Amino acid sequence: MMRRQEDGARGQCKIDKICRATNTSFVSNPINMPASLSLPVSPLCLHTTPTLHKKLTTPYSLSIRSSAQKPSSSDPKPTTTKPSSWVSPDWVTSLTRSLNFAKDDSNIPIATAKLDDVSELLGGALFLPLFKWMIRYGPIYRLAAGPRDFVVVSDPAIAKHVLRNYGKYAKGLVAEVSEFLFGSGFAIAEGQLWTVGNVCIYGFLYCKLFVFKLLEFGIGLKCSNALLLEARASLRLAPQIVEARAQRLDVSSTQLRDDLLSMLVAGHETTGSVLTWTTYLLSKDPSSLKKAQEEVDRVLQGRPPTYEDIKNLKFLTRCINESLRLYPHPPVLLRRAQVPDVLPGNYKVNAGQDIMISVYNIHHSAQVWERAEEFVPERFDLDDPVPNETNTDFRFIPFSGGPRKCVGDQFALMEAIVALAIFLQHMNFELVPDQNISMTTGATIHTTNGLYMKVSQRQTESAFASSSSSLQLNVAMRLKSL
Ligand code: HEM
């Protein structure tokens, strides 16, 4: 029987110890806090309670020009909003540097990041400064940020080593900061709670999730936070169903609820973000858009897609793959070493070391990809298998890799292909000019203010063979980002 183990040590963190050691107090300002359920590197998150979390409602944004974006007069303006950090990490970061890096024998370069940059890292679009330091320090470096120091990895071989060696490396910080949301659900559970037995209940959860996902399509390209909260509430409203199912599976009802919540939360927002960025990339690349629409017309012949059609929508699938390369969700993965280890390249890590695998850096590195910053769907050969971490040797890891890899990867790809195919079949779209497209990070890279497209109904023989409608619909559609 699997039961949740209470971990009394989880309430404590290094910042408490530093405060006590230096006889100082740590004052936070929740009003300026960034709002994200999953800012994994925020030290304050370790102190965050569900009540405090509710106060975190102001999105934290950084507006930048997308790497794949070609400049044009109507392009979104690349405005950068300087994030104001809710914590002044200067002295904490300095202290961490002097405590942790004084006797460093790891062979890992130490990033002498400006404190300003670090505060940006703590509160903003963290993958952008991480990329900047990769250019300066290489594919592995150490970085002090607030009360913690991280080994930042941007190398496929090291990422492979860490992700494949689950056991030596646990989820660590990400599990701590998300515990109030996931409880002991398997998305963040460690050890005994995350077992094959737990994974066996996926079948049941999947059926439930499918209904939920259908609902998601029914109301738009992605579901709203309100709907997610409603789903969470309904989990609580049906205790007898959960209890009965839990007894059959021989797990506690709390455990089952947490696991179901894991499925809902982990699958929420990701596919919506993928569709948002894929339509954005296609709107910037008319020749790829034309190619994808021609493929959809040829394969579907004007009818809705079937399961069999999915494998023939090869170019469209590559557009989604390439979108996942340029905009990986989440852009970083966190792990914590459980034992001392030596990473490929002879880099030493101690037990307890937090490791940040920057998927964004690996996917954008010129050492790893040719024309890394460009949107080139054809880089993944149409006749090759769909790219994944194994067949690219961890150069492409949007769904992570190793034992804690995404369990919803096939489902997510399938729903993204179906949704995009139907959209391209029926609609033409172009970016509304002069809008400010800005990125913000949480669990995904999403747009701060949404992404506005001018959408019009397509008029093709194959797409509308059975349709008598020739009405031109012009609507400004908002691919709403949460
Ligand atoms: C394009 C959409 C998606 C992307 C990019 C994505 C990405 C990821 C990534 C990178 C991880 C691993 C995190 C880590 O290694 O620490 C993960 C885990 C997970 N994902 Fe997804 N995901 C997507 C869709 C989904 C969907 C639709 C579901 C549900 C059906 C789902 C369920 C999960 C679960 C339960 C985990 C935790 C697995 C574990 O820890 O054992 N994901 N996802």
Automatic annotation (TrEMBL):
<keyword id="KW-0560">Oxidoreductase</keyword>
<dbReference type="InterPro" id="IPR017972">
    <property type="entry name" value="Cyt_P450_CS"/>
</dbReference>
<feature type="region of interest" description="Disordered">
    <location>
        <begin position="64"/>
        <end position="87"/>
    </location>
</feature>
<dbReference type="GO" id="GO:0020037">
    <property type="term" value="F:heme binding"/>
</dbReference>
<dbReference type="Pfam" id="PF00067">
    <property type="entry name" value="p450"/>
</dbReference>
<dbReference type="InterPro" id="IPR036396">
    <property type="entry name" value="Cyt_P450_sf"/>
</dbReference>
<dbReference type="GO" id="GO:0009507">
    <property type="term" value="C:chloroplast"/>
</dbReference>
<dbReference type="GO" id="GO:0004497">
    <property type="term" value="F:monooxygenase activity"/>
</dbReference>
<keyword id="KW-0349">Heme</keyword>
<protein>
    <submittedName>
        <fullName>Cytochrome P450 superfamily protein</fullName>
    </submittedName>
</protein>
<dbReference type="GO" id="GO:0016117">
    <property type="term" value="P:carotenoid biosynthetic process"/>
</dbReference>
<keyword id="KW-0479">Metal-binding</keyword>
<keyword id="KW-0503">Monooxygenase</keyword>
<keyword id="KW-0408">Iron</keyword>
<comment type="similarity">
    <text>Belongs to the cytochrome P450 family.</text>
</comment>
<dbReference type="InterPro" id="IPR050196">
    <property type="entry name" value="Cytochrome_P450_Monoox"/>
</dbReference>
<feature type="binding site" description="axial binding residue">
    <location>
        <position position="406"/>
    </location>
    <ligand>
        <name>heme</name>
    </ligand>
</feature>
<dbReference type="GO" id="GO:0005506">
    <property type="term" value="F:iron ion binding"/>
</dbReference>
<dbReference type="InterPro" id="IPR002403">
    <property type="entry name" value="Cyt_P450_E_grp-IV"/>
</dbReference>
<dbReference type="GO" id="GO:0016705">
    <property type="term" value="F:oxidoreductase activity, acting on paired donors, with incorporation or reduction of molecular oxygen"/>
</dbReference>
<dbReference type="InterPro" id="IPR001128">
    <property type="entry name" value="Cyt_P450"/>
</dbReference>
